[in-house]
């Protein structure tokens, strides 16, 4: 399994997931389909699937166009999310295979949108799994609660995504990492892992490089929203439960002018 990121719009990421033995590929959130189709052609790939994380235009807005460009391509999207151009609706636990060795598991991770899906992808034995989290989990952050509650985001982040294998590579929908880590330091000023990752992320961005992927393990060490489970973090924001802390941290982030 190989994964390529394709920067789109101002700060979005689309992705190509490749089954190396068959050269079959899936694209995640191809908002600028021409870029993805060109990249696929350059690598000699056969595009089979679109995996849409949620219905917002900057993720699903290229679906109709890619269907015109690649006749017969299947477009997957959450059953509750009314995804543009969707041909195959998925629910939590649905499985899709790609080529010979790539397996995709749909995880319902609602809150940012009602039907948001994260895609957990595994390849051959010995390869690290990956998870495409759209706008639910960002590196050191999470999406705004547009269509859901703190309870749902807690379930999506800390239970559903938090229970994935720790080495799972996290590929999110936007390059927001530097700002997210700067905010994380306002929650936990003494968190050395956050300090170190911020300094690394700033260097990456200065060099014009991406900050993806992260890992589930790194998120548990540096992401204040995933760390809302920790009594220490709850105390820092004056709360006594993970859900309350998550709600408070989101409110703080919404009002933060970093």
TrEMBL record:
It catalyses: an S-(2-hydroxyacyl)glutathione + H2O = a 2-hydroxy carboxylate + glutathione + H(+). Its EC number is 3.1.2.6. One of its GO terms (molecular function) is hydroxyacylglutathione hydrolase activity. Pathway: Secondary metabolite metabolism; methylglyoxal degradation; (R)-lactate from methylglyoxal: step 2/2. Residues 11-174 form the Metallo-beta-lactamase domain. One of its GO terms (biological process) is methylglyoxal catabolic process to D-lactate via S-lactoyl-glutathione. Transmembrane segments: none annotated. Its cofactor is Zn(2+); Fe(3+); Fe(2+). Keywords: Hydrolase, Metal-binding, Zinc. Pfam families: HAGH_C, Lactamase_B. Belongs to the metallo-beta-lactamase superfamily. Glyoxalase II family. NCBIfam families: GSH_gloB. This is hydroxyacylglutathione hydrolase. It comes from Salix dunnii.
């Amino acid at each position: 399994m190989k994964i390529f990121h394709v920067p789109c719009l101002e700060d979005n990421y689309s992705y190509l997931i490749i089954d190396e033995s068959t050269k079959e590929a899936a694209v995640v959130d191809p908002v600028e389909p021409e870029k993805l189709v060109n990249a696929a052609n350059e690598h000699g790939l056969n595009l089979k699937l679109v995996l849409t994380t949620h219905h917002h235009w900057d993720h699903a807005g290229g679906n109709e166009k890619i269907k015109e460009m690649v006749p017969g391509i299947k477009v997957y999207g959450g059953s509750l999310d009314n995804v543009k151009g969707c041909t195959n609706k998925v629910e939590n636990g649905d499985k899709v295979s790609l080529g010979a060795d790539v397996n995709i598991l749909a995880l319902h991770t609602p809150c940012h949108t009602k039907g948001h899906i994260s895609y957990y992808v595994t390849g051959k034995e010995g390869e690290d799994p990956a998870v495409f989290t759209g706008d639910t989990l960002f590196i050191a952050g999470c999406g705004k609660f547009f269509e859901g509650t703190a309870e749902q985001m807690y379930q999506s982040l800390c239970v559903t995504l938090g229970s994935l294998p720790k080495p799972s590579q996290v590929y999110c929908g936007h390059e927001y990492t530097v700002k997210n880590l700067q905010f994380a330091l306002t929650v936990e000023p003494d968190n050395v892992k956050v300090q170190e990752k911020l300094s690394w992320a700033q260097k990456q961005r200065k060099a014009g490089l991406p900050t993806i992927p992260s890992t589930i393990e790194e998120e548990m060490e540096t992401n204040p929203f995933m760390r809302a489970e920790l009594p220490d973090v709850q105390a820092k924001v004056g709360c006594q439960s993970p859900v309350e802390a998550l709600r408070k941290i989101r409110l703080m982030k919404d009002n933060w002018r970093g």
